[in-house]
Amino acid sequence: MDQANNGESGGEHLRLVQRDHVVGLNLAGWFGAILLARNSGWHNLARTALSWLRRADCAPFPGMSVPSQSRESNPAHRAEAGQPQRLRLLAILEATSITGPAKNLLQFAEFGASSGVDTHIATFVRGADNLFTKRVEEMGIPLHRIPEQRAFDPAVLRRLLEVAAEVQPDILQTHAVKSHFLARLAGLTKRYPWVAFHHGYTWTSRKTRAYNELDRWSLRAARTVLTVSKPFRDELAAKGVPLERIEVVHNAIAAGWGLGGRDPMHAAQLRATWRIPAEAKVLLIVGRLSLEKDHVALLRAVAGLACSQPLHLVIVGDGPERTSLESLAADLGINERVHFAGQQPTAEPFYGIADIAVLSSRTEGSPNALLEAMSAGVPAVATRVGGIPEIVEDGVTALLVPPGDADALRAAMQRLLDEPTLGAALASSASVIVQERHHPASRASRLADRYHEVLESWDRRA
């Protein structure tokens, strides 16, 4: 593989390149503040920032010795006689809990091994270990920590290069805006075949939405961009990512997931923990408490439901909107029946007490929460957004409603409460679909094949 700028030398050149990396990180922060200022001319400023990044297209961080060993000379990458070559994947992901992307990556690491892919995970850490790093180590997956002292810490770039030099990956895989941006800024994407995984965007704030725009620079350089729904594919194409480089790969879920939660004793204990009566009907939503999940519409819908039995809503997950959602539940007079369960190691036990699973999102990709409901045998009400209609069919495997419509959401939940046989039919059909189309081994095999293709294309170019 080419070592970028190996032929160039000189203290002044190194100083300038190092300056560009620091400026690049500072620029990311500046760019993220553009929308926050609500200046009417922010569009032009954003374009200026992206133009600077395209011109910079930085080389690897100087001052660090990076081994020049290639994949071909690395014994760890040699295949046994008559056996296909095993691939070494370095996945870069920021996570402190078992988020959707984290769950998918851990799943691939487990099932991908059987498809010839050995996964290493690099993650950004501040302070002590978290739920994600602990789970990675529990699963025996090689973990590489990237310490950062603050946002836009320039030392992160050096550590990224060090990790890549240690792992010598066949494929570099990044997840989400931060990883995409830093991998390209550090020059890793010129050194290794790069596959970027796009899981969608959060809408936490104006600053976050501006930060998301960094993908306009980062992802245009990716050899392959994998995403989880057709609308996300179209969104990336609108940002300038060549359509022919984008591939849709839906998420998967292990066969039998959720069945353990149906144990009557465990279900009774969970109800007791959250003070939910044994006879109460339970609505469940699982996901980050952020604007795009639109828990507001769900709370308003629940406030209008009528049920002959006690009715409770369990919200699993945490996020920046929690305080405002708790206040809204109190304002609506339903706070005694709404339970904020926070971040949980797994949502599986909660599906064991759920009568209806709800997704009220304004945007979604290939939601794990929907697959979990389908696997656990819980009928689902979901908004008709993103990749949801690619997974379920309205009236056949779920009930679908328009996003942002609390009345439609209420009517669909009311229908399932009034017609339990309909819910049972939807759940049964959904269970068949999830087993046929969303098995982790099939997904892992498809991804492994794609990584081989990317590697072969890279080798031909080299």
Helix content: 40-55%
CATH fold-level topology of the largest domain:
Rossmann fold
Care to count the β-strands?
A: 13
- What is the CATH first-level class name of the largest domain? Alpha Beta
CATH homologous superfamily identity of the largest domain: Glycogen Phosphorylase B
Number of DSSP helical runs: 19
Low-confidence stretches: 1-46, 58-76
> Would you tell me the structural class of the helices and strands?
alpha/beta
Report on the architecture of this protein:
- The N and C termini lie close together (6 Å).
- The protein is globular and about 65 Å long.
- The strands form two sheets. The chain has a seven-stranded parallel β-sheet with strand order 3-2-1-4-5-6-7, with helices on both faces. A six-stranded parallel β-sheet has the order 10-9-8-11-12-13, with helices on both faces.
- The protein folds into two domains: 11-66 and 84-252 and 442-461, Glycogen Phosphorylase B (Rossmann fold, 3-Layer(aba) Sandwich), CATH 3.40.50.2000; 259-437, Glycogen Phosphorylase B (Rossmann fold, 3-Layer(aba) Sandwich).
- It has 462 residues and is α/β, with parallel strands linked by helices.
- It has helices at 11-36, 42-56, 100-112, 131-138, 155-167, 176-185, 188-191, 206-212, 215-218, 230-238, 264-273, 295-303, 322-331, 348-351, 368-376, 388-391, 406-418, 420-437, 440-461, and strands at 87-92, 117-125, 143-147, 171-175, 194-198, 224-227, 246-248, 281-286, 311-316, 338-342, 356-359, 380-383, 399-401.
